[in-house]
């Protein structure tokens, strides 16, 4: 990356993943940008009463960020709200924290993922109407694993080469992929009994891998369980840290 590109960036699409109070009036931000991936930056004076950044630095809202600096911690120069994304509430808000935590823990800094950025934005829009959160989360998890190079092969029977039939039952061999085990009507995709314990979770085959409707449940449980119960304690604090900048 050229020095000029590292020094100054203007109006780059981004989302705020996490915010931390810094000194008396500033914020440390972890952002997810379309062109540069995860970028850390300091928003100087963002918590002061007259800061133009107050009311703009909101989680789960698309922003156009401008920044400068050459080190790992950049300096935020300007932030503009793009709009078009409804606010998240209730279960959808907790699911949003879960998505942000996945990105914070699994993505390297300054490693761009344009397709994943678009999927993240799409997932936020799917969560906003307060419908079932499980299909949206499963679809995002699969997209994230694919971006990281760990996608599960779920399209074809590894033994016969035929496309997966949602009406049939399969066992998932971690080294080979799905293998039909006979029987119809359950639509279950089960790991082999001798599979490693860390992967021994019940999966459900999605008839529509593009939208994730009825999608595979492997990294997150059904929406019947509260997402907040599985969140690390600092997630709720992250919401407060970012939200306080607009109060």
Any overview of this molecule?
With 247 residues, the protein is an alpha+beta fold. Among the domains are: 94 residues, OB fold (Dihydrolipoamide Acetyltransferase, E2P) (Beta Barrel), CATH 2.40.50.140; 37 residues, no CATH class. Helix content is 25%, strand content 26%. It is built from five helices and nine strands. Strands 1-2-3-5-4 form a five-stranded mixed β-barrel. Strands 7-6-8-9 form a four-stranded mixed beta sheet, with no helix packed on it. A hairpin with a 4-residue loop joins strand 4 and strand 5. Helix 2 runs parallel beside helix 4 and helix 3 packs antiparallel against helix 4. The radius of gyration is 20 Å and the shape is elongated. It starts with a helix and ends with a helix.
Q: What's the arrangement of secondary structure elements?
A:
Layout: H1 3-7, E1 8-22, E2 26-33, E3 37-43, E4 63-68, E5 73-81, H2 90-106, H3 114-127, H4 133-148, E6 168-173, E7 177-184, E8 188-191, E9 203-204, H5 234-243
Helix pairs in contact: 2-4, 3-4
Rounded to an integer in angstroms, the radius of gyration calculated over CA atoms is 20 Å
* SSE arrangement, N to C: HEEEEEHHHEEEEH
Q: What does the overall shape look like?
A: elongated
Tell me the span between the first and last alpha carbons.
Answer: 37 Å
User: What proportion strand?
Assistant: 25-35%
* Overall pLDDT score: 78
- Widest sheet: strand ordering: 1-2-3-5-4
């Amino acid at each position: 990356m050229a020095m000029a590109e590292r020094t100054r960036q203007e109006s780059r699409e981004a989302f705020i993943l996490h915010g931390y109070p810094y000194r008396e009036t500033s914020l440390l931000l972890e952002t997810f940008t379309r062109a540069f991936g995860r970028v850390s930056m300091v928003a100087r004076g963002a918590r002061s009463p007259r800061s133009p950044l107050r009311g703009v630095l909101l989680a789960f809202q698309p922003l156009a960020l401008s920044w400068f600096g050459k080190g790992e911690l950049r300096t935020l120069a300007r932030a503009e709200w793009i709009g078009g994304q409804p606010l998240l509430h209730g279960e959808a808000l907790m699911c949003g924290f879960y998505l942000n935590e996945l990105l914070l823990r699994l993505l390297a800094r300054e490693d761009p993922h344009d397709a994943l950025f678009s999927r993240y934005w799409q997932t936020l829009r799917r969560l906003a109407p307060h419908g079932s959160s499980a299909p949206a989360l499963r679809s995002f998890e699969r997209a994230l694993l694919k971006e990281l190079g760990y996608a599960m092969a779920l399209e074809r029977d590894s033994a016969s080469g035929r496309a997966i039939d949602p009406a049939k039952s399969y066992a998932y061999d971690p080294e080979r992929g799905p293998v039909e085990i006979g029987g119809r009507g359950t639509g279950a995709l089960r790991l082999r009994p001798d599979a490693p314990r860390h992967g021994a979770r019940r999966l459900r085959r999605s008839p529509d891998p593009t939208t994730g409707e009825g999608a595979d449940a492997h990294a997150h449980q059904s929406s019947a369980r509260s997402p907040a119960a599985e969140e690390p304690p600092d997630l709720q604090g992250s919401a407060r840290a970012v939200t306080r900048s607009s109060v």
